[in-house]
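User: Structure please.
Assistant: Input sequence and predicted structure:
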Amino acid sequence: METKKAEIKITVNGTPYVVWVEPRRTLLEVLREELFLTGTKEGCGVGDCGACTVIIDGKPVLSCITLAVEVAGKEVTTIEGLVKGNHLHPLQEAFISHGAIQCGFCTPGMVMTSKAYLAEKKNPTDLEIKEAIAGNLCRCTGYVKIVEAIKSVASGKAQK
């Protein structure tokens, strides 16, 4: 039996798309397999690790458990959407300059969660940052450098 596809219109990183998808397809699958935006990673596939975090209408969302049809008509921002021309976003720069990237697999989700958080919260404490990124797992670091990178952007002291 053939599954009927649904037409969805979404804007990803400022570009409008019309995509035909099976209703069971996740946003993560559509981003990676249909739009070829592979910066968003699949870690666990069940919403536990945060590696797949994207921003939808200003809020961080786990794309591995979000159906693509649910984002019809919405604005999606992926890690690729943070780059402006040849310039990385300050959070991306801070992660690099603070050594907060090791294998890099969790980094896109960590950056996207942090971006959404810092849009809402100015000058958070270390504890508040830790709470904000609690849903993002990193197997390589002790989170200290990640928190330092986020804090440097929040305080306006990001290294360039």
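The first strand starts at residue 6 and ends at 12.
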